[in-house]
Amino acid sequence: MSSDAKDVRTILVRGAREMARREGSRTIEAEHVLLAVAATAGDPAARLLADAGLTEDTIRAALDREWEDSLAVAGIAVRAGLLPQATPDHSRDPGIGESVRLLLERALNAEPKAGGTRIGSVRILAGILDAGRGRVARALQAAGVDRAALRARVAEALARGVR
Length: 163
Description:
Layout: H1 8-23, E1 27-28, H2 30-38, H3 44-51, H4 56-73, E2 95-96, H5 98-109, H6 121-129, H7 135-142, H8 147-159
Parallel strand pairs: 1-2
Helix pairs in contact: 1-2, 2-4, 2-6, 3-6, 4-7, 5-6, 6-8
């Protein structure tokens, strides 16, 4: 993705939708949004993620570990890297999933409220990090990410007016 990803529409339409398509997903979920943000070169939220050691590749690895761990709880041993790759269906247009609706709601309400009403990538990242449950929260925990410290850096950016 280019560095012009300045608002929610660009991240969701260009980035997250394509991530969902590549995975063969019927819906765009929070993990697709996080991957899209991380893949946006030069974006302030991507820099915050990279500073925390989170690139598109490290996030994918954490999501794979979370998936393996979740299946292991049910007694299913599987290695994500050994499974066949998804066959993307470019004719299918993934819809917005519930986790994205919730993250957008959290993004709108994220503190601090500085910087106007537009939801940019940093505010989206705040919405992602404010989720205490779900696949992304479990993946970040498995990756050893200090979510509280990252969220504090996001809050500082928002306070400076970075959206």
